[in-house]
Amino acid sequence: MDSMYVIGLGITIIIIILTQIVSKSSSKQNFPPGRKGWPIIGETTTFVSCPVKFVVDRMKDHSPDVFQTSLAGETMAVFCGPAANKFIFSNELKFVKSWLPRSISKALAQQNSDPTSHSFKLADQVSHKFLKLDCIQQYVGTMDSMVQQHLDKFWVPFEQVKVHPLAKEFTFELSCRIFVEFSNPSLQVVKQLRDPFFEFIEGIFSTPLNVPGMPYYKALKGSKLVQEKLYEIMSQRKKKLKLSDDDNHDDSDLLGRFLMASDEHGTCVSKEDVARIIIGFIFASFYTTSTTIAFVVGFLSKHPQVYEKVLQEQMEIKRGKGPGELLTWADVQKMKYSWNVICETMRLRPPATGGYKEAITDFTYSGYNIPKGWKVHWSAYSTSMNPDYFPDPEKFDPARFEGSGPPPYSFVPFGGGPRMCTGKEYARMETLVFLHNLVTKFRFKMVNPNENIFYNPDPVPAEGLQVYLQLHTN
Ligand code: HEM
């Protein structure tokens, strides 16, 4: 017992001395104030367990503009506030470039591609164009009919459902249809990809130990299987394209567009790049849109007067449609109040904690030096709960988004600048179309209005957000 005590005391003293050395050398070189935490793991555990508290506490303790920490084994400067957001978004490729921890980019199959290749550039061009509003808006009707089928099958027969797991299944199916296999509504592809994808997604943020049995090992295995299945699907589609007399034309989904694309050098998109983008898109939409849907349901259940206003807006749109007529992009544009409700939900429960970059040169911000190689994190939490931009920040109040809305760069759930989320319009359409169908079909009440939230590091309802359902009678 005594020797354990002495060892523990010794370790504590060494850490205190190391922390002092680090903070002294930091202050000499005028790095942002902050602490690095434990060797190797740094402050990762504290950050992941509650990113909002992590950021708000450190803004108070160190600096409201920028502080340093250590996350995922990297020294990181966390940029805070609207001015910092503007600075990061405006200096992409001048001071910073996008960055992901190696463990995550490996699981996302990003390391199989060569970023300098023609195929890589072509794949990025095709996929960016695909998610642009003028292309993606053609899928509103498909989203609508898929939501209806999903609700009829998994919600209508039940008095009680868990919203978050259902929203995840729906989001996954939707991405498979729009990105991989549009023309086959029976979605064979979902059956092939679902289990390995869910295994991959469950372990991607875990400790990166590639040892059999560990969640990260399973994530890599799942990712590999998804890649292989995608390669198979691609080669079958290629064969079909060759056989079709339709001028080899198939732009029904993202995969079809990849298979048809070629650039001025005659380069086509490689199978590795197809997998990289499709896995990236399915991953990027998975938690973000499903948690947004779940938390919207939670807030509407707690705020009946907001629910009534959303219902009124959505019923007006529904009354304008004929029987069986699907929603269109013009209908989505009318859902202004509902979008304010979704924005207020994303303010209180940001579906993505922010973005990660790497300093590509030495630069200064707010009087502090950021050396080349440091990682940079802009955090949605540094503004979303700040009473200077959102008075009474804990209050759920969609009216904040009326008129000119919050001050510039204070509400940035999708980031900003050249690396802003390319899936923003897709996410807007999916969440609004889902909300339309939900409120025009049901009233709902949370089974546990005090349900906890845990972070992974994005917020997740701890009990899956369980609600009682009541079908509208007319
Ligand atoms: C509520 C839903 C969503 C939220 C809140 C969200 C948020 C974000 C954020 C914060 C970033 C990082 C921006 C940065 O690094 O500065 C991002 C990047 C990205 N998102 Fe989303 N996202 C959502 C849905 C989607 C969907 C549905 C897709 C695809 C269909 C998608 C695709 C992407 C891609 C490809 C990037 C990387 C962009 C780039 O680096 O050029 N996102 N998203």
TrEMBL record:
* GO-annotated cellular components: membrane
Superkingdom of the source species = Eukaryota
Which Gene3D superfamilies would you find in this protein's record?
Cytochrome P450
| ATP-binding found in the keyword field | no
User: Which residues does the annotation say bind heme?
Assistant: 421
State the Gene Ontology terms under molecular function.
beta-amyrin 28-monooxygenase activity; heme binding; iron ion binding; monooxygenase activity
The identity of this protein, by name, is Beta-amyrin 6-beta-monooxygenase
Protein's organism: Spinacia oleracea
